Amino acid sequence: MLKIADKTFSSRLFTGTGKFSSSALMEEALVASGSELVTVALKRVDVKNNDQDDLLIRLKYPHINLLPNTSGVRNAKEAVFAAQLAREALETNWIKLEIHPDPKYLMPDPIETLKATEELAKMGFVVLPYIHADPVLCKRLEDAGTAAVMPLGSPIGSNKGLKTIDFLEIIIAQSNVPVIVDAGIGSPSDAARALEIGADAVLVNTAIAVSGDPVRMAAAFKIAVEAGRMAFEAKLASPVSHAVASSPLTSFLDA
Amino acid sequence: MHSFNDIFETYNWDEVKGSIYAKTGADVEKALSATKRTLEDFKALVSPAAAPYLEQMAQLSQQLTLKRFGKVIQMYVPLYLSNECSNICTYCGFSYDNKVRRKTLSPMEIMQEVAVIKDMGYEHVLLVTGEDNVTVHVDYFKKALELIRPHFAHISMEVQPMDLEDYEQLTPYGLNTVLVYQETYHREDYKKHHPKGKKSNFKYRLETPDRLGQAGIHKMGLGVLIGLEDWRTDCFFTALHLNYLEKRYWQSKYSLSFPRLRPFSGGLEPKVEMNDRELVQLICAYRLFNEEVELSISTRESPRFRNNIIKLGITSISAGSKTNPGGYAVEPESLEQFEISDERSPAEIARVISQQGYEPVWKDWDNCLT
User: Fold this and answer.
1) pTM attached to this predicted model
2) What is the predicted ipTM?
3) What is the b/e burial string over A46-79, where b = at least 16 CB atoms within 10 angstroms of the residue's CB?
């Protein structure tokens, strides 16, 4: 079981709520995914009347935990403010920290993210920051009290898969907090691969929401994530590129 | 201080126009198969040579838009605050020399309009005025924003270009987005269409997006009024402008509009016509050129066109719009800026969007983020 802060998760597939063609379809897909942690952009929901918000109503399942995100903020100050608002409105101290001052590529700002993580952790938030696949930043975030790290696999929404795999492997090798691959996962095989290399979970949105059949695709991701984790636990055999027949360099030692 | 004008001055209208019309099918095919498209590719995509490739462009445009924005369309509505104007613009119903009754909404009237717009379900409002710096100035906007802000999640403005200090003063009042259309990048024609008033200063208008970027505005909207000049050339300059702004003011978001000149009482006939096929070509060309830019369509277009454009690349749409100050509640019969083509209510448009397999999104920003 995956444990982040005080919660345990039997599903290692986290999901998002954007880009679906209707909120009814979103609900059906997220249920099919088996996801227990679903991120919601604060800017999309009506925080003042959250009991009437269509999107939030559709996420009211006992197994679904809400993970409000700060999408739209440009610096640490705005992020802290948004997190406090989310805590008040949605009654959760979990926050997915997204600080992307660049609205074109939505690249996370490492400096502001570290600053905000420090502050929010001190205030008792469970912080899950969206970041570049930067191993040093991950260690700095650990020191700052982050609950997990969420490095990107490739640019968000790009469906390009694990372009950052070499850095993800370093992050996974040295992390003391759960590693969740957050962005760029385009297909169930990408998700399976992330779990195989030891990521604790993945977060998938676009690849499900924009697919031809989001409900089936969500189910496919569910299976892929389970398979990837199982393979990781079963310990993959190392890939070998050629058969090892003789030892020309060391055979002299046998003589 | 460098501005877009420095780049703009290195271009010659006739040369750009010539190079667009010289593009061939081979140039279009190269542009279609590119993974990152350049300004030269954009020229090919808006050129007459791209006409036979329209279906292919539309399919690519749809895919790219889905990837970035998903199956959603943002809903917004204009709120005209004033039709007072000291400019002469040959194509506009609010032009100084046009004999219409002038009106600027009082605080109480603003609230009457707000109530009707809120009832329609809107969370994103676009405030529109003419240009009258005596009555409709920064202090008026501050008061209006104070009144309007508590009721909407997202406030945009389409008013006269202002100084940097003015924009800096307005952002703390909840101003998120500013639209400022160049109308045309043809300098001489611009002068012809704007013979009097502050608007006749081409360069001041051209440099307005620079001031918006410096003021740290969240989003800005660009565009030209299609019908004044050769649309292909004008839209190339829009793309050039966008390219420059994105690199320089990388923390701002951008949106593009492509209003076609609409009739109004006593107004100018378009010099250059753009048909529906060409408008689709332009929308797709913008999308293929820039995957992240928002593309907006207003009630200037016909119901049939709007129904079918939803899936082709646009990201936001207005509905139930009134283009006269007080049009929703105070004075529904007063003279409008232009005749709208699509009279359907916001609820009807939302239904059309859903029927196309898209979700109408009313709220995608929050007051607390501005």
Assistant:
1) 0.90
2) 0.81
3) bbeeeeebebbebbeeeebbbbbbbbbbbbbebb
